[in-house]
User: Fold these one by one.
Assistant:
Number 1:
Amino acid sequence: SATLSMAFAAARFAYKMLDALNGADNRVECAYVRSTETPAAYFATPLLLGKNGVEKNLGIPKTIEYEAQLIENAMPELQSNIKKGIEFMSK
């Protein structure tokens, strides 16, 4: 289910973050974060996690033309959803 998938992703991210905060090196996990990788204000990308939290946004991995087109096609709806989320949270 979608709820179980989101819970698993959150648990996996939390586990890796705690591992990194406790000194483990080179922990990488994907997360939906504020980003300049695309025209959207937020995007899911791999993050390098370290003892200080998010050390670096590793950006969008190399994509083939088809994948790049899918990302471009998703932008209008993604930006619309981000706008709705920001408006909802500012109420």
Number 2:
Amino acid sequence: MNLFSRFFGNTTQNLNVNQVREWQTAAKKPLLIDVRQPEEFREGHIPGSKLIPLGELNHRLKDLPKDREIVCICRSGNRSGAAVRKLVSAGFKSYNMRGGMKAWQRAGLPLKKGLL
């Protein structure tokens, strides 16, 4: 446990790719936010995910529903972890997809290409 976590707690809750995939089929689906850059998103993203690059997240908070759980996604889990911390501090219920798109692809889960 690092010094920050010891004093402030670990504010990032992680889900693995199988948990995210299972949650997508639940009655109340989470909002999937991909915080990568548009060119990364275009190469392959989780179907149904919404692109909001990490650098734009602060400006887009007002557009996000506070009554819905949010799962943040990036390439490996680092940027999405930062996004989760921002969202949690702004009052959102948010989770990090551990391992990011690299883990999603390794698991052979579905991808969509393009921006839409």
Number 3:
Amino acid sequence: MKAILWKLRTVTTWHDIPEEFCPWQTAYNWFNH
């Protein structure tokens, strides 16, 4: 969840999500479901 919020707040690409949150693919899949 933190990764999705970070993505929306920073308006960046999924690939730029810091790995400390989770792999970008996981956040992307959560967001698209």
